[in-house]
Specification:
Elements: H1 6-13, E1 22-27, E2 38-40, E3 58-61, E4 64-65, E5 71-74, E6 80-83, E7 93-98, H2 104-119, H3 132-158, H4 167-196
Antiparallel strand pairs: 1-7, 2-6, 3-4, 3-7, 5-6
Helix pairs in contact: 1-2, 1-3, 2-3, 3-4
Length: about 220
């Protein structure tokens, strides 16, 4: 039976559904000097569009929500948005929004890699029921590994040299790497348990198997 919920199952495992990642009153990036209009949320791939959002989602100045009409434009893929009026020196700009880490196409890519390694083929929809949890765990390992690289790049792109992220901010990268290692270990254990329990023995890969030689014995004449 085809595994048609693989992508949604992986998204759930990663806690990356549409309402899983709420950022409440989070500071945004951009110069507050009375003339600058362009700001950026730390996370890109926001789900919340500030030009159409309803309270409590949206952009706040000094704790007061800016009307959606006060947002000229918003790019969800990069996190950049443009205000109608420039904040003055001393103002505080924050935002409340939902975001997601992965596109469906990325999750599909992780699943193909995982299925190829765990189940011996990249068509994850055909993974045996007993191997699906292992495929999910391995795909999650790939996802966390990508997040570690992505956040390192984001820190590099977002912070200026004089405002490098401190150790507290970098802890999230360390945590993603740790989560990747743990998920990979889980995947290997689930995979090994599946074959050691001899479920689907005929499909078990021949890792470590010693093959004998068969002699071609000619018939007696």
């Amino acid at each position: 039976m085809a595994w048609l919920t693989a992508v949604s199952d992986l998204r759930t495992k990663l806690s990356d559904n549409t309402t899983d990642r709420l950022r409440a009153f989070k500071r945004v990036f951009g110069d507050i000097n009375g003339t600058n209009l362009i700001f950026k949320t730390f996370e890109y791939r926001r789900i919340t569009d500030f030009t159409t959002a309803s309270a409590p989602l949206g952009v706040y100045k000094n704790g007061v929500r800016i009307s959606s009409t006060g947002i000229m434009s918003d790019d969800l893929q990069t996190g950049y948005f443009t205000l109608q009026s420039a904040p003055l020196v001393g103002d505080v700009i924050e935002a409340t929004y939902y975001c997601q880490y992965f596109l469906d196409s990325e999750l599909q890519s992780f699943l193909r890699l995982a299925s190829n390694f765990i189940a011996g083929g990249d068509n994850y929809t055909q993974a045996q029921g007993g191997l699906q949890t292992a495929v999910l765990a391995y795909a999650a390992a790939e996802a966390y590994q990508k997040l570690a690289l992505r956040f390192a790049d984001t820190f590099s792109d977002t912070y200026k040299m004089q405002d490098l992220p401190d150790a507290e901010r970098e802890k999230i990268i360390v945590q993603f790497k740790k989560s990747s290692e743990e998920a990979r270990t889980e995947a290997m254990k689930l995979r090994n348990d599946f074959y050691e329990n001899r479920q689907g023995q005929a499909l078990a890969p021949l890792f470590g198997t010693n093959l004998g030689n068969v002699r071609d014995v000619a018939p007696n004449r």
